[in-house]
Amino acid sequence: MTDPLVALGPVFRSALGKAFGAELADTDPVLRSSQHADFQANLALPLGKRLGRPPREVAGALVAELGTSELVEKTEIAGPGFINIHVGNGWLSSALAEVAAGSLGLAPVAHPETVAIDYSSPNVAKEMHVGHLRSTIIGDALARVLEAQGHRVVRQNHLGDWGTPFGMLIEHLLDGGSESAEHSVRDLNAFYQAARKKFDDDPAFAERARRRVVLLQGGDADTLALWKKLVDASKAYFASVYALLGITLGDADVAGESLYNPLLAGVIAELCAKGLAVDSDGAVCVFPPGFSGREGEPLPLIIQKQDGGYGYATTDLAAIRYRVEKLGASRIVYVVGSPQAQHLSMVFAAAKLAGWLPATVRAEHVAFGSVLGADKKMLKTRAGETTRLIDLLDEAVSRARAIVAEKNPTLDAAEQETIARAVGIGAVKYADLSSDRIKDYVFDFDRMLAFEGNTAPYLQYAHARIRSIFRKGEAVVPPPSAIVIAQPAEKALAKLLLAFPTVVDDVATTLHPHKLCGYLFELATAFSGFYESCPVLKAGTPAERDSRLALSDLTARIVERGLGLLGIEAPARM
RNA sequence: GCGCCCGUAGCUCAGCUGGAUAGAGCGACGGCCUCCGGAGCCGUAGGUCAGAGGUUCGAAUCCUCUCGGGCGCGCCA
Fold this sequence. Notes:
The protein has helices at about 5-20, 45-50, 55-65, 90-100, 130-150, 165-175, 180-185, 190-200, 205-220, 220-245, 265-275, 310-325, 340-355, 390-405, 415-435, 445-450, 455-475, 490-510, 515-535, 540-565; strands spanning about 30-35, 40, 70-80, 80-85, 115-120, 150-155, 275-280, 285, 300-305, 330-335, 360-365, 370, 440. By secondary structure, it is an alpha/beta fold. The model has no long low-confidence stretch (mean pLDDT about 95). It binds one RNA strand through helix 2, strand 9, helix 12, helix 13 and strand 13.
């Protein structure tokens, strides 16, 4: 363990055992970072109460057993019984050497899981819009974090590629005559809306569409071929958006609604056989306990509609079975907006009742709020239409292009373009990831592209600036063993550098990526403080210069890796 | 009507399983102009943590209620 906060755990366990007996050894030492020392342990107060002894006396007994070591350089008891801990610079130096020589402190978890992550999920033959932004960005960041921890991550892009709208979409495609599907999806909004309009206005068309749905569901070969054209064209389009956004989803990750089609009848049959599903007003429903509607009546999860059709609840249940039984997932993560909280918890409840979601498998809803416009309402264009995702991204990149051109005009055009994309896309992603996902946020280009504050450009700049030290000094990275912590600013930086793996663990557990953002911002700020007070290239001695160069390099690598876990690039110059 | 989520500085947000005077960024004001990219650093001002109870040695954090705001509540996904 290279994080001192983690390394202190066993030290306290041992001291607790010696001071108060084995049965109290596992007491949580309540270790926190401290403004009065490096760390503080707050356990003496509650423990004193349990033991019926004054907290300061308890703290004294613990401190006596803790003694001093490389790690625990000095302790003191403060106030009502806080134990302040000062960590030795030597310990920090060797921990940093280990981290710098290895994989930044990141280590594979002891028990890797298979984690299915359901995210992005756009609809075939429809434009991707802001509504897909958050799921795509958050899901991808979480997938990267879990993968970095050594878990087997199975991305599941739950495409909307099935259902009644495909009748009208296929008929509209046919009406286009020579027009190819590839051409049609070039303007997806227009394509879908035109189909919709014909469906609403033209009864003959609507009838054809309905017949087409029947053919589709019946497995008609020609119809399926047309359907596949639409799906393939859409997948190609989504791939282009993912490429621009830097999203790791590929064709192999597509697990659309149609995948579960053959499983739906079995889901219903089994629910009925188990007595969990009953007829209600002609529909087949499950009534999971604990959910009630407007009049306090039990709330149904409709698994088969009156007309015999299947709803999304059925698909969601089939997907759970697939992920548990076929994929072997022990953790299923749904990156889906908060309005679906009730629906998902009903699906989870039904799946548990049916035995498809055993106690060994966790299903988690990673809920998030809405993207708002400047008016604090759901983001729309001036015309009141939903904003195309691609338009938003293009504008972010073009604004970044202007900023880069202004700030660093000496770079050649190709590099400027690469940087503009990294900065523009990074800004959009970071703005989405950096605040608690449950809250709504206002989409504001100026703020997300600012080079001050908790933004991607600030962190990217911090990274580029560190890299520039090496260019400027024509320096090579010294060996890890060069690191010697001496100054307060170096120590502050060191403690943060060592906390990286703990923060990544925390994100993997809580699925709250904003904690990593907050950490990286803190780290970059600490580096600024270090850089201000500790000359690197102009250090007093060669050894000091090497130590600081190695610290700088380690900081740059962690910022780069941390941004990478969020799906954000860190150019070497900007 | 029931349920879920949110309400922290003028603005945008952190605040970890309750812990020592509630922290950043922007904006405002004032310093650092022989500075390794000043896209920086330091400082000042600014908060009844929506409100009221309760639990506790100790509450922004846990419980209850009230007030605001958002969302959901049978055949759309």
